[in-house]
Hints:
Layout: H1 15-66, E1 70-75, E2 80-85, E3 91-96, E4 101-107, E5 117-122, E6 131-137, E7 145-151, E8 158-164
Antiparallel strand pairs: 1-2, 1-5, 2-3, 4-6, 6-7, 7-8
GO biological process, one term: protein secretion by the type II secretion system
Membrane topology: Single-pass membrane protein
Protein name: Type II secretion system protein H
Amino acid sequence: MAKRRSSATSEGFTLLELILVLVLMGLVAGLATPFVMSTVERIQLNTATRKMAAALRYARNEAVTHKKRYLFSVDIDANRYSLSRGDDEEQTLERTVEGDARVAAYENESEPVSSGVFSIQFFPQGSASGGKIRIEPVEREESDSYYVITIDPVTGASRIEQKES
């Protein structure tokens, strides 16, 4: 006679076990989401900063290569930057700061600028008017970090520093 398996020994999962696993997966996903979102925002801020630093290096290289003065202009209110030749104002590059980042301020020997437009000049010898550009998250909190791009007036080189509030 063939043995019959009882329902207690059958293979598979019960409905209760499946529901419990789904609830635990939902909890883990709910706890991980804020961490993932803050990581994405940090990556966007870092990327926006690196793109602007690359544009500043490009401005310096163009000034040296073409032996002409170039202006790197930033509109803080519109969150945009552009590069133009100093003699004819022809724009060769225009970009918007993307992601969860914004240009917050510019410091030079003169008054700090936190709204409006400012320009950094790059000269044919490789020097620049210099200054510091502060880039921070759009939704700024007390614990957020921000970036500062420093443009050396003697060499025209730009350097990125990450700072904590």
